[in-house]
From TrEMBL:
Documented EC number(s): 1.2.1.59
Gene3D superfamilies: Dihydrodipicolinate Reductase, domain 2, NAD(P)-binding Rossmann-like Domain
Similarity annotation: Belongs to the glyceraldehyde-3-phosphate dehydrogenase family.
Domain of life, source organism: Archaea
Cellular compartment(s): Cytoplasm
Keywords: Cytoplasm, Glycolysis, NAD, NADP, Oxidoreductase
Pathways involved: Carbohydrate degradation; glycolysis; pyruvate from D-glyceraldehyde 3-phosphate: step 1/5
Catalytic reactions of this protein: D-glyceraldehyde 3-phosphate + phosphate + NADP(+) = (2R)-3-phospho-glyceroyl phosphate + NADPH + H(+); D-glyceraldehyde 3-phosphate + phosphate + NAD(+) = (2R)-3-phospho-glyceroyl phosphate + NADH + H(+)
Subunit structure: Homotetramer.
Active site: C141 (nucleophile)
Protein name: Glyceraldehyde-3-phosphate dehydrogenase
Gene Ontology molecular function: 4-hydroxy-tetrahydrodipicolinate reductase; glyceraldehyde-3-phosphate dehydrogenase (NAD+) (phosphorylating) activity; glyceraldehyde-3-phosphate dehydrogenase (NADP+) (phosphorylating) activity; NAD binding; NADP binding
Glyceraldehyde 3-phosphate dehydrogenase NAD(P) binding domain location: 2-141
Amino acid sequence: MKSVAINGFGTIGKRVADAVAAQDDMKVIGVSKTRPNFEARTAVEEKGYPLYIGIPERENLFKEAGIEIAGTVEDMIQEADIVVDCTPGNIGPQNLEMYKKAGVKAIYQGGEDHELTGLSFNSFANYDDSYGADYARVVSCNTTGLTRTLHTLNPLVDIKKVRAVMVRRGSDPSEIKKGPINAIVPNPPKVPSHHGPDVQTVMKGIDVTTMALLVPTTLMHQHNLMVEIGNEVSNDEVIDLLEKRSRVMVVEAGAGLDSTAALMEYAKDLGRSRNDLYEIPVWKESINVVDNELFYMQAVHQESDVVPENVDAIRAMLEIESDREKSITKTNKSMGIL
């Protein structure tokens, strides 16, 4: 059982902690918070995770709130084989210095730049690159979504270039200070957006250009892909390949799954913790090959699709499992992923 510390118990961190706790080859030795809020209390009282504080000067605040702490983040990482860093992006570099000083491996999230670690991770595309590595970064939710389907299709279609329009949620459901409320915002108002170069960190050599918008929703992102291909394939061949790939879900608008709202309702019906949809849903009706172009639409649950990737990254970096498909299968089974 490898010891895993979760630095940051927020939107991603609490999901990663629960995913790690569901494995039989790793365990959560601690999570961290900087404020004594409901998430800190839940970590201790409901989940039973040892809680460490990220800002030692706030120890009295936790004591006043009646939340038991086990020590500081520095204490936590001393006991860890690896740290999954789920802290806000602006403190990644200083945390890396702390991890290096402690001699502990670390996984970052997509909010950090690729240059911080020099190595980005996706379970399907480049699992082997991170095998035994000290530091890596799981790519963002959008990049994970793009990579999952493009890498799945790559053996079937001769990808010449990819063009994608990302329709992004304005904020996560709990973020009350973000928008837009009543606008469509080019984000960024230039082409390309950062998503294309991010895909290239895990799929070397792929020609991909993206543009992105923010819209007034909190549920999911939605992607519209146009893939120029160099060979002849049928719609049915594409559908069959996507249906066989785990962590990808072919859904039908005609069956009622005709929106991101319906997809989130489906996740609830599946009985998922926090209504999470780890899979990337691809609308069957959108899959269409016209001349030398493949078109399709997909959705991304931004709060959860990277969670299984973090578990696989732990296995790769700690050399628990050398075979990516064995790790993917193990993670999927433990988390109930289709």
